[in-house]
Every structure is written in C-alpha cells, then in structure tokens.
Amino acid sequence: MLRALIFDVDGTLADTERDGHRVAFNRAFADAGLDWHWDVARYGELLRVTGGRERLLHFMESSSARVPVAERDALARTLHASKTTHYLRMIDEGAVLLRPGVARLLSEAHAAGLALAIATTTSRANIDALLAHALPPGALDWFRVIGAAEDAPRKKPDPQVYEFVLEDLQLAPHECLAIEDSAAGLQAATAAGLRTVVTINDYTRDQDFSGALTVLSDLGEHDAPMRALGGASVGGDIVDLAQLKLWHMRY
Ligand code: XBP
Ligand code: MG
Q1: Region 209-230: what's the mean pLDDT?
Q2: Rounded-to-10 torsion of CA 18, 21, 24, 30
C-alpha cells in the first residue's frame, strides 16, 4: 500500500536553481567584492556538484577562481551563508513559484491521509521559506518528515537523506514513492530502495533517468497537461493520487 510521498525540493517542488540559487550566489559574490559571475549555462555545469557549499569549493578548485587552498573552506562558508540570506529574501519576495501540479498533488495527498516528506540537499531554512511562501498557511505541518542538508551531510547521489527520511517515517521503501528532477536525485532515491517519478526541467532534461518509474515534463494541470517522456505510461493530463497508486501497485 502507498503510504508516503517523498519530494525533492530544488527543481522538483519549484524551479529554484536558475532564478533563485544562481542569482543569490552572484549577489553574494558581488557583496564580497569578487568578480565571479555564474551565468545560466555555467551554473548548469556546476549543478553536477550537489550542495551549495560543495559547489563553491568545486568552483574554487578551478583555475579561474584563484583562491589559496588554505582559505577555500572559510570563504565557502562565508559566501554560502551570505547566499542563503539573499536566497531567503528572494523567496519572500516571490521570486520562485511552485511547479505545475505540485500544490494540487500535495493538498490531494494530504487530504487523503498520505504522509508527506521532503528529502533535499538544501538547508532547512530554505525549505521552510519556500513552503511558507508558496503553500496555504499551515501547510508546513502537512510534512511529517523533512530531511535537509543538516540531517544528511553526504549529499545526493548518496542515499543518506532518503535513508534518514525513511527511518523517521518508520516506513519501508516499497510503501513510498519519491519525486525527483535530477539524475543525482534519482540515484539517491533508487539506492535507498525507492521507486521514483521524475519531472524534468531545463537543467536536467538531458540527464540519464534509466531506472525511473516514469519520466514526465511536470505533474501537469488540467489547463496545462503534462507530457510523458519515458517509463510507465500515464492515463490522463495530470499526475494525481489515483495515478500514483496505480503505478505503485503495478511496479
Ligand atoms: C539541490 C542542490 C542545492 C541547491 C542549493 O539538489 O544541489 O545545492 O542548488 O542549495 P537536490 P544550498 O535538488 O538534488 O536536493 O546552497 O542550500 O546547498
Ligand atoms: Mg532537485
């Protein structure tokens, strides 16, 4: 029986990367007097490294950054904290909205008594801000478990955050479905034993999603149908709870 849905955040609940995290990183660089700038394409390459602080460290290892090895860790921490402040402000200003079908599916699953959970590499403050801003008041309480960067230092594709969430839910992987947007996220969920629905975005559309239960453009709305891109077929225009239960039963 399907008992829980476990959602990734960045790229899945909302398109946070291009117009959210990326812009916040660039503002932190400017504040620090650095001439670094991550354009849309460069950021897409950097997204291969999950975790904002880890991404900064990776960038500093590249020749263009020119930061002495001994200073990198402290600088990454300072820049990441500043970036988080900028990101939270942007979320409060409404810079990032939920993706199609996300609010619809969350409220349907909550009303039906399914457990909802989050498994993400981003930090807890970012999740709270996004959910508080984009969902109805009190919706943060819909989530029985929130697994964030603070709970799982080993970032996706490591399964640690999914293992943390499953343990806290006290559910077996076969009682849950994961919803992800990236190959790293799919690998993490799969390694934790979870079947995974993938909704792609501009940064992830060309990644390898073999092993996913299904690959979709998004979760869809009746006035903006989703497109099926691979894996299990879809019975309609949208992914609703009935569709998820059907996939869960069959696969
Ligand atoms: C998301 C990430 C995060 C965000 C930035 O991956 O990799 O690093 O880009 O967030 P996923 P922080 O969607 O697979 O969880 O800067 O807070 O790390
Ligand atoms: Mg993601």
Answers
A1: 96
A2: -70
Average pLDDT over residues 142-160: 97
Domains of the chain: 4-16+97-250 (3.40.50.1000), 17-92 (1.10.150.240)
**Residue 167: predicted pLDDT:** 98
**What SS3 state is found at 176?**
strand
pLDDT tens, residue by residue, 189-206: 999 999 999 999 999 999
Which ligand 1 atom is nearest residue 188's CA?
14
The token pair at 145 is 């478990």
Ligand nearest to the CA of 188: 1
Average pLDDT, the chain: 96
pTM metric for this prediction: 0.96
**Among 121, 151, 165, which residue has the most ligand 1 atoms within 8 Å of its CB, making it the best to mutate?**
121
Specify whether 8 is catalytic: yes
State how far Cα 38 lies from the chain centre: 20
CA 235 to centroid of chain Cα atoms? 25
> Which residue in 56, 19, 3 sits closest to 241, CA to CA?
3
Which residues make Cβ contacts (< 8 Å) with residue 68, sequence separation at least 6? none
Report CA(68)–ligand 2 centroid distance (Å): 31
DSSP string, 15-79: --IIIIIHHHHHHHHHHTT------HHHHHHHTTS-SHHHHHHHHHHSTTT---HHHHHHHHHHH
Looking at the DSSP bridge assignments, the partners of residue 147 are 119
Residue 54 — very low, low, confident or very high, per pLDDT cuts 50/70/90? very high
Q: What percent of the chain has pLDDT over 90?
A: 95
